[in-house]
Write a sequence for this structure.
């Protein structure tokens, strides 16, 4: 983000000149605060981005259900329903998870993202994505 400097000089006791416009001291404080808040938010975004990059390092080259199902005319939710009917995944705690039988086979990873709720609070969510091995496994199920 490009930062611009505002030339401010004191005039009298109660106002400042910002290049031809007079501004009360209260407004100057607000501008400084907003600039500071914006810098803090930019820094926070950088930190969160680095955190997500670290969290997602294993899911970087994985496939979403939508990507796997697309060649077969399936949307992600259709593929997930198909896999649930086969007993491979199940809906747990608001997200899809592998069933016990398929755990620890390197079929899936979690992909993380930050979302903001209606209350404005940030929360971390994850979704199930398929490794190359998992993709081949799912493709084999679809073809049979």
């Amino acid at each position: 983000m490009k930062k611009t400097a505002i030339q401010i000089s004191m005039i009298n006791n109660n106002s400042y000149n910002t290049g031809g416009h007079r501004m009360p001291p209260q407004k100057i404080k607000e501008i400084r605060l907003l600039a500071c808040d914006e810098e803090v938010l930019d820094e926070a975004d950088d930190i969160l981005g680095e955190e997500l990059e670290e969290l997602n390092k294993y899911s970087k080259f994985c496939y979403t259900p939508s990507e796997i199902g697309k060649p077969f005319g399936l949307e992600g939710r259709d593929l997930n329903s198909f896999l649930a009917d086969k007993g491979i995944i199940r809906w747990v705690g608001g997200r899809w998870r592998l069933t016990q039988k398929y755990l620890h086979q390197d079929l899936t990873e979690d992909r993380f993202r930050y979302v903001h709720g209606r209350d404005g609070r940030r929360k971390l969510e994850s979704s199930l994505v398929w490794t190359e091995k998992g993709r081949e496994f799912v493709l084999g199920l679809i073809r049979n």
